[in-house]
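Quick illustration for those who missed Monday's session on complexes.
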Amino acid sequence: MKILFLDQSGKPGGAELCLIDIAKPYRDSCLVGLFADGSFRNLLEQQHIPVQVLATEPIQVRKESSFAQGLGSVSSLMPLIARVVRKAREYDLIYANTQKALVVGAIASFLSRRPLVYHLHDILSLDHFSRTNLSIAVTLANAQASLVIANSKASKMAFVKAGGREQITEVVYNGFEPELYRIDQSSSSQLKQQLGLDGRFLVGHFSRLSPWKGQHILLEALVRCPEDVTALFVGDALFGEQDYVQLLHKRVAELGIEERVRFLGFRSDIVPLMNACDLVAHTSTAPEPFGRVIVEAMLCGRPVVAAEAGGAIELVEPDITGFLIPPGDPTRLAEIIISCRNQPLHAATIAHQAQSQASQCFDLTTVNQQIEKLLYRIVKGK
Ligand code: UDP
Ligand code: GLC
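Prediction with uridine-5'-diphosphate bound:
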């Protein structure tokens, strides 16, 4: 099966990391077309997945764009669409992995007569998108996609609620290779030492820096915790959220917790870093579509606390495989941190249960088989 994958991003967010795993089995016969250049291209190349940057200039549409801006940008997309149409004729299927990829992919699918699959990584609600962008996504998916793969039940439900066709939508969770997350604990202890964090109770936060990812909630929780509790922020502002970064640093200074906070920026050594943490916190203030970091923490055997909304509810069974807190609630977060610090055995039991359950439920081989079956159905039925 020859697949033309499309993704708008040059940077590796969760949707892009998921795409690497999905494209890998097709690397002998697929192409990943990107609408921007960046480190995501390097990651694909490292995995020997054919990749080409198809856009020559940045696409201006933003999540909050108005109708007029939306229309204006469609005309600016014409050269890109023409390029994608030409490419698509060499492939059996167009697989759009992001919203802008859906816009380009839907038009290219119509013109090239190739079936379209849309991998929906977002919760299509007003928490995340403008009304215009929501209706563009739903209208194009309904009109042109043969299949919508939703990354969680929550993402599927939001799509259907926004008017998306339920009959074409299947839920497929992100897949992981559990063995990659089990590492020798001594390398993590060394890392903790190198970071000068020995003896601290380390709460890790592994997300791009963005207001809805709620890093500020962890800062507010920290001041409600004993002095040895320290926060490790791993991730960078991937999509231009520099104001939020400033705000976080300002808040650290205001709270006088400089000694208890580390910002490491974007890192590719997530596994040893997660293993060095005593607890992993997920604090999104808007519903998380899936939440790779939650599953990754589980696979590392680290206890995880997550904000109770969106896909996170499908991943964590409270007090069995992790902890759930109301979104945006630093007091409740502090209570969970303190209880994990004071009862490490209980936290370890939960982490252990989560590790074995996550290894079964989110196994990449199974997920890829699921996707292969769905795609074959589409290609055969074209
Ligand atoms: N991640 C990473 N380096 C970082 C921060 C995050 O590789 O410095 C990875 C993280 O391990 C996860 C992904 O980025 O696999 C983020 O995906 P998630 O679904 O949690 O959130 P998204 O950013 O896609 O909304
Ligand atoms: C998106 C979502 C995130 C999800 C990832 C992979 O980036 O924000 O919640 O885990 O896609 O599906």
